[in-house]
Amino acid sequence: MRRIFAALFVCLIWSVAGSSAAVAEIRNPYSGTVTVETGRPFDAFVKALPEAIKVQGFNIVGVACATCAAQSQGVTVPGNRVFFFFKPAYAVRMLAASEAAGIEAPIRVYVTEGNDGTARVTYRLPSHVFGAYEVPALDTLGAELDEDVRAILDIAKKGSGG
């Protein structure tokens, strides 16, 4: 009997895997995900974003560049960056409220280049991420971070150059 179930399971997995090319990509697979069309050219937005992050008092703790990695392999892909940032005072508050929530920092925003060459930003609302912990102090922090991320993106969307 176990062999029959195992065979059926393998057939089911094989049929799902074989048909996966026909399934459309789920753009925002997690609830609380926001996508913002910036209307700015990708390169100009990516150049303006670090300054906007700093203006709001955050430190950039990393930048990942899939475009750069692909280029190192001789492959060209549209513009693609992930910016990681956080504010030291927020880190202290977050950890005081919940040590477990430390895995949620830093904030991540994913900047991609659309077919028209403009930047699109996707991120998870901090209020949603921290809200999962059901800790009132994290709810407050998440709401503040929501506003900070919106402000950062607004600043970068208006940034100089273009």
Task: Characterize the structure shown.
The chain is α+β, with helices and mostly antiparallel strands and 162 residues long. The chain has one domain (26-158): TT1751-like domain (TATA-Binding Protein). It contains six helices and five strands; from the N terminus they run αβαβαβαββαα. A five-stranded antiparallel sheet has the order 1-5-4-3-2.
CATH homologous group name: TT1751-like domain
Number of strands: 5
Output the number of helix runs.
6
- Determine the strand fraction and express it as a percent band: 15-25%
Give helix % range. Answer: 40-55%
Identify low-pLDDT runs: 1-23
Report the end-to-end length measured between terminal Cα atoms. 65 Å
Number of domains: 1
Structural class: alpha+beta
SSE inventory with pairings:
Elements: H1 2-19, E1 33-41, H2 42-55, E2 59-64, H3 66-72, E3 80-86, H4 88-97, E4 107-113, E5 118-124, H5 126-131, H6 136-158
Antiparallel strand pairs: 1-5, 2-3, 3-4, 4-5
Helix pairs in contact: 2-6, 4-6
Question: Which tags fit this structure?
Answer:
5 strands; single chain; five-stranded antiparallel sheet; alpha+beta; 22% strand; 48% helix; TATA-Binding Protein; 162 residues
